[in-house]
Amino acid sequence: MNARLRFFGFFLLLAFAAVEGWSQEPVTAIKAGRLIDVRTGQVLTGQTIIIKGERIVAVGADLRIEPGATVIDLTNATVLPALVGESARETLEYVKWGMTPIQAIQTRTLRAAEQMGWSDRVGTLEPGKFADIIAVEIDPNRDIRGLEYPKFMMKRGQVVAAAPLKEPVSVKGGAPPPLRFEEVEVFADKGWPRSILTRLVKQYGVNFVPTPEQMARLRQAGADDELLSLLVSVKPIVQVSQLSLVTQPGGVQAYVGDTFRGITSEQQGNLNIENLTPGSHQLRLTLPGYKEWNQQVTLPAGETLPVSAKLEPAGPKPLAFEEVEEALRNGISNKRVGELVKQFGVNFSMTAEREQRLRGAGADGELLYLVTQSKK
User: Fold this and answer.
1) Mean pLDDT computed over 77-83
2) pTM to 2 decimal places
């Protein structure tokens, strides 16, 4: 009987031990060379983050690491809270618009979590928060581009990446374009300080005249009377746009609306069309012997829109006199027009008047002779 009780007691002891072991959450310690405290904006050195399960339990210097904990060495990196919401590229844009790197990081961590109602879970590296952590090799307080390629990522205590995720993305130089209404509304809604918004409007201008509806939306987003008065008084800046055109074949005539804007190069088919008004335009491409190509394009303000077009042959239809004349007047070379005449022929006979008009358009003697011999 005593032996049976001893055996049963030993069995219960093993069971309790197993349950106790299963109930323990794994402990991880991250040793950070630099740690960004997004509440104060300070960069702290020699910090340790203790994580139990999916949450942070302690942050500080010289913390005791219990035996059996997993230790992650990030002493050569900067550790900060994972960004909330958008990608790192938007954080780069905040810096281009005038924020300091630490202000941009605070906007995307602490402030974003507060606005989403998640401040009890994410946004800072503090006890009780989820262990959503990233680390970069350079100090993002000095170079914000480090956020583009973190070397380490943790989501709720689980390591999800421990190598560079992408190559650094270059930041375009030059002054940003004028502010759009949607940008001003988003910045105001995100709680950007009025001083920063005012400076951005004065420095870069806007590309809109606020309507009563837009004024109401901005006020609802948090804009005050001073900012609204500034927006009303600022003269909008309308930026020009460009088209970067590539055609097959080359030597194609390009029209924007009814205006001739140039010919694509004969070899590569390239043409850059500058000084276009932003908005919607009809792009028309023509070449004798080919079907006309038409497309409605929308040009973003201050940007270059790439367009590729492949023209289809029109079939064995001979060229009309007007097609040959237009091609020459638009600057297509005699050699190229001659090739098209040889390929498709012409549907007209040469007269003295037509010869004079073609000479006036730039035809040389060799092309005129070829035209006279190519009527079909």
Assistant:
1) 88
2) 0.42
Burial of 153 (0-12, 13-18, 19+ CB in 10 A): middle
pLDDT at 5 over 60: no
All domains of the chain in start order, with CATH? 27-161 (2.30.40.10), 181-233 (no CATH), 239-315 (2.60.40.1120), 319-376 (no CATH)
Angle at 229 between CA 277 and CA 224, to 5 degrees: 115
pLDDT at 141: 65
Residue 88: per-residue pLDDT? 64
What one-letter code names the amino acid at 190? K
